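Retro notes
What went well: the complex prediction finally ran end to end.
Inputs used:
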Amino acid sequence: MSSKLVVNSNINGQDVEFLIEPQQSLLEILRDAFGLTGTKEGCNDGNCGACSVLFDNRLVNACLVLGVEIEGRKVVTVEGLANINELHPVQEAFVVEDGLQCGYCTPGFIVSTKALLDQNPDPSDDEIRFWLAGNLCRCTGYDKIVKAVRHAARLMNEAR
Amino acid sequence: MKDFTYVSPSSIGEVVGLLSENEGCAALLAGGTDLLVQLRNTNSDVDVVIDVKKISQLNDISYDVDNGLSVGAAVPCSQIYQSDIILEKYPIIIDAASIIGGKAIQNRASFGGNVCNSSPSGDAIGAMMALGATCEIVGSNGVRTVPINEFFIAPGKNILMTDEILVALKVPPPKQYSGSGYIRFTPRAEMDIAVAGVGSYLEVDRKSDQILSARIALVAVAPTPVLSTSVAQMLIGNTPIENTIQMAASLAQESISPITDVRGTAAQRKHLIGVLTKRSLNLAVSRVK
């Protein structure tokens, strides 16, 4: 077994230090070491987007990042979006618009949507669909999800 | 994933040293979007993963009027399509960078990785071939520069020796009155891999409107992406009008012997190459400046 490495990072606003084996993915670390199970494992090869997280504010698939790569960097998962009292507007919009059924893909969609709206506060339907192409949902279909994203954009723009 | 040692050196010299020490058992990690999948799914003999993202030369985009563009091998697609200089001078690179994977992939996947993965369907390769890019390679014997159309050997295989690293892709400064474009076909509008793709580059004489030079890169229709010399030769001396472009499209179809695989049939690929050659040439013509 390869020797463990010490990694210092910031996850959901908290400075953390942990031991890791080099071959462990960021996804494994988030779920198994930190109990942040909102980030889901779907395909584990970068196709489904269930493990979408923000890595230095940029959207990535946690399954395609090695845990050691987050040394000195910032990671935000779905758990880091809401505060203790209220949902993040993107989460609220998915609830209001029924943008989910089984919910497995939802954390990925929420994180992906947050990344989209941070960069483009008023996306068109085409831009939404293109942006979310890396997130797969096998039950809802995408119409309600797109509606939820539009709703989230409205909520976030009103709050500005 | 099987066990390996992870190292993240800060110089190319260190990388070359590590590659030599671990001959054939080291893998270079840039965005990881291909490598991590390969390490997970295959019986890999990789013992050492060398993360090259701390090396500044591999993360830089630079341009000057004499030497043209240099794209560090680890620069991710999203950084490429946010580059004003690339948008202004080399829109064909944006064509390719914005269709590789989805947003999360584009934030990690690099053009250098796409080239080194050496898939016949590499979109970055099609764009870079059309532009006449060269690969700057460093190994124990020093630096060598190889035209990108001589880089590939077979699907997944290229000319890199076990002690060599691709440092940057270099593109000559754009000629006056030249234009280029890359187009591919995929069943899905995004997050898909090319069934076929074509990158076209044209330089025209402003007065006579004759084509002075041309490069047509055909993607996913041969064991490696290829430049079609027959199409380029035919174009030279003609004017880029509909009839010429139609002839180029037919010639491109004749020049290939694609295979049938999970993504498409040989017949479909032949048909697509005709359509895509036409469209990418028209795109290139529309961008001539």
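What we learned: Chain B has three domains: 5-51, 57-171, 178-286.
What to try next: split runs per interface for comparison.
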